[in-house]
Amino acid sequence: MTEQTYNQALVELAQAGLAALAARADSPNALKTAAAESHFICSWMAQSLKERRFSKLVADDLNHWIRDGRSMGAAANLPGLLARIDQQYRAAMDNHTIGASLQTMLDSLNEDDWLVIVDCEVSGKLKLYSDGRNSLIISVEQYEQHIAEGKLLQPITLYVRSDEQTLAKLAAEHQLLLSAGNKKASLIKHHKAYKLYPNNRQPALALLVK
Can you tell me the distance from the alpha carbon of 92 to that of 110, in angstroms, rounded to the nearest whole number? Predict the structure, then answer.
């Protein structure tokens, strides 16, 4: 039996939650307000965690979302979160040419006047003067050795300076899952580090479009 991946476990959870919400909506007495629906999903998640309905791979996510739901109420928008996960992850899981998709995204960034650098080694702390332009840097060693025949063979780190939701939308358009941005792990000043993995297999929740 093939072991379930994080992506598969996450989509399974998201689809189950959306199905439960849809079944609730069929009830004539169900309140269909944002607050009521978010409260329902929060309670459903808590019960799912208690009963261990889903893989341990998503237990930390569930705990985090339950805390958000209880503290933020409707503002947590848990139904919207599950819908975004379902949409972005299913598209990304169908993408078997991550390397080619990354190259297409880089080409589009060049066309949009981003500063894209893939021919320099990134091995220590660096500064980049981009005159305020959005920028994306990949170390030449990773760019040349981690991609072959349209496939991503090993993880790649992208150093990016831009509005994070702009990056999230670009990645989603190209069916790519990027890790959450990490400023502390970045080797380039004023940039965040994002990881892209072979087959889009992120080990934790990816950067999502809001």
Answer: 23
> What's the Cα-to-Cα distance from 122 to each of 95, 104, 117, rounded to whole Å?
28, 22, 10
Pairing between strand 135-137 and 147-148? unpaired
Helix (H, G, I), strand (E, B) or coil at 137: strand
pTM value surpassing 0.85: yes
CA distance 135 to 164: 12
d(CA 136, CA 28): 51
Strand partners, 194: 158
- The first and second tokens of residue 59, run together, are 């237990």
Which helix (H) or strand (E) segment is 177 a member of?
A: none
Residue-averaged pLDDT of the chain: 95
Q: Please check whether residue 61 is in contact with residue 205, taking contact to mean a CB–CB distance below 8 angstroms.
A: yes
Nearest Cα to Cα of residue 13 among 67, 92, 94, 89: 89
Is the pLDDT confidence value at 2 over 80?
A: no
Provide the terminal-to-terminal Cα distance of the chain, rounded to the nearest Å: 35
Tokens for 20? 């439960």
Q: Rounded to the nearest 5 degrees, what angle is found at the Cα of 103, between the Cα atoms of 101 and 109?
A: 105
Identify whether the C-beta of residue 37 lies closer than 8 Å to the C-beta of residue 79: yes
CA atoms within a 13 Å half-sphere pointing along the CA-CB vector of 76: 22
Please say if the pLDDT value at position 171 is more than 70: yes
